[in-house]
């Protein structure tokens, strides 16, 4: 992977500065000058102290650029800066648009629509996320979410099940995928024509402060954001607020009045977000160019295996019975190692034979 001098400067600045601070520097200094200018000039351009500017120069120049590029290439990622033609126009238009994107896969497809919600959803929340995201993907939209546990995972899986595209935005570097149990899902997203996206250097760990910044990319990539469950203080509300600040539509799925996971969507509805129960209520609020490119079917019919069920799948269904089992418990009972079991379960989800439930457990569908 070869970079121009400007791109090399961007990679170094992106590792230590906010996008706006980096743009201020590059608006006042050329890429060749940015990291070699006197700290007083650099500090004035970035709006930071001379001491902070000197520290920034030291860190940026010491950044292992070749190691970063090698790690990105090994993970299959490429770098897009905000002037690259492939950089999404919707995202480029938002405040604090990322300076760089690390992308694995393709940022192509129909109108993007975000789905966000609780990491510990109820069965109702999982059902609504699956229905709405699946219908959106089936209609030609790209389903955008954050690869987190719960609603995010369900939305990505529903898009894949519908034969559509989905983009996952990470709060870590693409070389430190989080959560780790979604590694198979991440591979499926890319294999199906979707993409993994992060603004963070390739080996960045999933620190708590990264996720609110990740949320602005989720909403910034999308024409609208659909909130499915969330508590009164949740990342879903942060994403919704960012979407509004970016001039995008916000939709909220109502829930049971006595559930704390209904607090976030109900608050949004009270503040003017569109209450939605079906995708038809979403389409009518989007600009004409963002509506379905093909009419969605009335419902997503379950996919069936054409050949007879494999022996391992039959064993798993017998073990599940009427109860949900955890991944490790199921693996021990079936005598299947966890990586292979995860793969089998994902395929069974696509075939509508099992369903994930909170706590990394799986249940047999009532009428597979």
Report on the structure:
This protein has 17 helices and twelve strands. With 368 residues, it is an alpha/beta fold. It folds into three domains: 63 residues; 187 residues, Rossmann fold; 54 residues, Arc Repressor Mutant, subunit A (Orthogonal Bundle). A nine-stranded mixed sheet has the order 1-2-6-5-4-3-7-8-9, sandwiched between helices. Helix 11 packs across helix 12. It is globular.
In brief:
With 368 residues, the chain is α/β, with parallel strands linked by helices. The N and C termini lie far apart (47 Å). It is globular.
Could you tell me the strand content as a percent range? 5-15%
Number of domains: 3
* SS summary, helix count: 17
Mean of all residue-level pLDDT scores: 88
CATH class of the largest domain: Alpha Beta
Q: What gross morphology would you assign?
A: globular
Low-confidence stretches: 295-307
Looking at the structure, the CATH topology of the largest domain is: Rossmann fold
Class inferred from helices and paired strands: alpha/beta
Kindly report the spatial arrangement of strands forming the biggest sheet: 1-2-6-5-4-3-7-8-9
CATH architecture of the largest domain: 3-Layer(aba) Sandwich
DSSP E strands, number: 12
Rg, alpha carbons: 22 Å
The share of residues in helices is 40-55%
Largest sheet: 9 strands, mixed
Pattern of helices and strands: HHHHHHEHEEHEHEHEHEHEHEHHEHHEE
End-to-end span in angstroms?
47 Å
List keywords for this structure.
9-stranded mixed β-sheet, alpha/beta, Rossmann fold, Arc Repressor Mutant, subunit A, globular
């Amino acid at each position: 992977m070869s970079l121009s001098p400007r791109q090399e400067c961007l990679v170094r600045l992106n590792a230590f500065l906010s996008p706006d601070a980096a743009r201020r520097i590059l608006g006042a200094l050329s890429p060749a000058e940015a990291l070699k200018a006197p700290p007083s000039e650099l500090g004035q351009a970035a709006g930071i102290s001379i001491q902070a500017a000197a520290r920034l120069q030291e860190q940026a120049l010491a950044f292992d650029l070749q190691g970063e590029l090698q790690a990105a290439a090994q993970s299959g990622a490429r770098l897009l800066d905000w002037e690259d033609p492939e950089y999404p126009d919707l995202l480029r238009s938002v405040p604090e648009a990322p300076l760089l994107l690390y992308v694995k896969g393709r940022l192509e497809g129909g109108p993007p629509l975000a789905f966000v919600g609780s990491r510990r959803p109820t069965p109702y929340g999982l059902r609504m996320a699956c229905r709405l995201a699946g219908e959106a993907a089936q209609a030609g939209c790209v389903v955008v979410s954050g690869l987190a546990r719960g609603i995010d995972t369900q939305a990505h899986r529903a898009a894949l099940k519908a034969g559509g595209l989905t983009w996952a935005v990470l709060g870590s570097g693409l070389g430190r995928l989080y959560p780790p149990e979604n590694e198979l899902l991440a591979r499926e997203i890319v294999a199906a024509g979707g993409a993994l996206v992060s603004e963070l250097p390739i080996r960045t760990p999933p620190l708590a402060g990264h996720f609110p910044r990740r949320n602005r990319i989720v909403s910034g990539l999308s024409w609208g954001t659909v909130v499915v469950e969330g508590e009164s203080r949740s990342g879903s509300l942060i994403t919704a607020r960012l979407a509004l600040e970016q001039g995008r539509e916000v939709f909220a799925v109502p829930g049971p009045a006595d559930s704390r996971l209904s607090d976030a969507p109900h608050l949004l509805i009270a503040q003017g977000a569109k209450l939605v129960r079906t995708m038809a209520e979403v389409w009518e609020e989007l600009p004409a160019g963002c509506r379905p490119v093909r009419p969605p079917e009335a419902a997503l019919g379950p996919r069936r295996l054409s050949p007879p069920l494999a022996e391992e799948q039959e064993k798993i269904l017998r073990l599940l019975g009427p109860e949900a089992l955890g991944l490790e418990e199921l693996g021990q009972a079936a005598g299947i190692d966890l990586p292979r079991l995860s793969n089998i379960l994902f395929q069974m989800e696509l075939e509508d034979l099992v369903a994930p439930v909170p706590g990394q457990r799986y249940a047999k569908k009532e009428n597979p």
